Structure prediction request, 222 residues.
Amino acid sequence: MSIGNPFGDHEGYLKTINNTDNKGMFITAIFDDPKTFMNGYDFKNRCDYNSRKAAHGFHKFANGICNCGLTVEPNNLTGNHFSLEDISALFNVVDAYPAGAILYIELNNDEDFYLTQRGNTLTRTLQEQLRFLIEWKYAHEHLDNNEQIAVTATEIINLLAIPQSIQNWILSDVPNEKVNRFLEGRTDALQRTQEAIPDLTEELKEWLLNQFKQAKNFGEHE
Ligand SMILES: [Zn+2]
Prediction:
C-alpha cells in the first residue's frame, strides 16, 4: 500500500475525461480525534494514531444499522465499508484541515462497486468531487440537511475559499452530482452521470496544483 507522499507528479490527479478517469477516485474525509474511532491497539495500523486529528469516512454504526442503511458494520479505521487492506494508494490532495480533506484513493478491486455504494463520497474526478461538496453545502444551508457530510462539506468549501469564478463554472458546466440527482428523484442517483463531464479549466487546474502543494501528509497536522 502506498500512503502519504504523493506521486512525484501531481498532475496525475488532474484526470483527463475518457482517458485517465477510470482508475483511482477522490474521496472526502472528515478529521476527528483518533481516539473517537480507533482502538488502543490500532496504533500499529495507522501512522496518524497519535495525531490530534485523523481522517476517516462518514459511515457510522449504531443500534445494528449503519447510517447508510447497511446492517454490516463499517470498518472503524476507514469509516467506510472497505478496510485499509483494500486500499492500494491513498494521498491527501486538497487539505481543509481541521474540517476535512479530499483524498486520492485507489482500491485493490471493484472500485465501481464502492463508487456507487450509498453513503460513500467517492467520485472519479476532482470536478465531480467539488460539485458534490457544493451540492451538500447547498443542502445544509438551504434545505436544513444536517447530516455529517452536509456539515463537513460546508466547512470544507468555506475553508477552501474557492474563487467564485471556479464555483460558477462547476455549477454551470459540471453535471449534477449525487445530491442533486437524488433531489430530482432519480433512481440512478448513485451511478456516475451519463452526461458529458468537462475537462478541468486552466483556472481550476492552477488552483488545484496549488492545493496539492499545500496538502499535508497524514499525521503531519498539528
Ligand atoms: Zn455504511
Observations:
- Residues 59, 66, 68, 70, 74, 81, 119 surround zinc ion (CB under 6 Å).
- The chain has one domain: 2-214.
- Strands lie at 2-3, 25-32, 54-56, 61-62, 65-66, 87-96, 100-107, 122-123.
